[in-house]
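Support case: pyridoxal-5'-phosphate complex. Customer-provided input:
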Amino acid sequence: MLINSLVDEVNRRDASLRIIKSILQNNGREGFYDLTGLAGGFPILTEDKALLETYAGPAVFEEAIQILGKIHLGGEHVLALNRTSSGILAAVIALVKKGDEIVHFLPKSPAHPSIPRSAELVGATYREFEDIKEFEIGENTSLVFITGSTMDHDVITKKDFLRVVEISKSKEIPVIVDDASGARLRTIVYKQPRAMDMGADVTITSTDKLMDGPRGGLMSGKSDIMIKIKSKAHQFGLEAQPPLVAGMVRALENLSPERILEAFGNKHDLYNALKNDFSGVKETPTGIMLTPEAINLELNHRGLTTDFNHDDLAYLFAMLLLRNHGIITIPAVGMPGASATIRIDLASNDAERISTQKIVDAFKDTLIQLINIIDDPNICKSVLYY
Ligand SMILES: *Cc1c(COP(=O)(O)O)cnc(C)c1O
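Agent response - structure generated as follows:
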């Protein structure tokens, strides 16, 4: 195994950041392509900074986020948070007591860990359902979660969504929707209504997913519940500070359904161009992905076997893509514990600057390079760490 520990992962990430810095110095910002879909833009304007340095700034952006947040999510009252996870935690602290139960319906397990972890923190039990026929509310259920679109972009059907709301309403249990990417994916690509328009009480989205904003959580919902959640968020320091709110405001102004739809169209071309050489490539809603197993499969197809585990192959692939082609994917720069799957998200800002052909050529070349080095653990280590 090449990557054995969290320390190895940190070292690999540090190596990626050094490479990116050197590309920046030699070729400028045009020298690399961040196709992670998690670029975390911060599109504030010069005048915003000046405003933030006054007492008026926070008030101005607070008013703007109320207006833009309601346009994007619906609902009556908006709350900006440090992360989606922070909003989920605030909601659970506000609405769930020890001994209560949280139930969660999602199109495919696993849930984002913030939901079960928040349940555990307040001493609540937690049940997850993927099959609508099995979904039920228990004696002690005090909160229902729906995930609109999972971390892997599996999207709930409108029918299942409405059914969960119906069952929850019949027992008067509030429904919160984790719509981290779903607030855009479900509505723009799958043409579903906004969560609030399908009967949710609260919804939350991530301002860096399928939009060019800073990492943060944007929540909206019915006023009576939002007041309770907001109070807890402030008590525990989970709310977004004014500079983050300013970034969210500008990102919401820039939100481009066209770019998301374009990515949705282009991914078919990319998928078709890759599938001859990578039989395990899969489409995602806004791009393609290559799992560690799929990379191993390509080696096997070419008569090669290796002692490295599959994740190692994916990390090597990601590092070669970055070193030789300036393409940034999550396995190269992700935090320890992030998935090793290679994803190309065509809704990323930088996707506009790189052609499908260039991505395809980079993938083919990277596979050849991987095959060339795979028998030499020392070279592999230097690709990962230096
Ligand atoms: C990304 C994501 C989250 C968490 O967002 P953070 O901003 O990282 O806290 C929660 N749920 C789902 C479904 C996600 O995709």
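The chain has a mean pLDDT of 94.

Case will auto-close in a few days if no follow-up is received.
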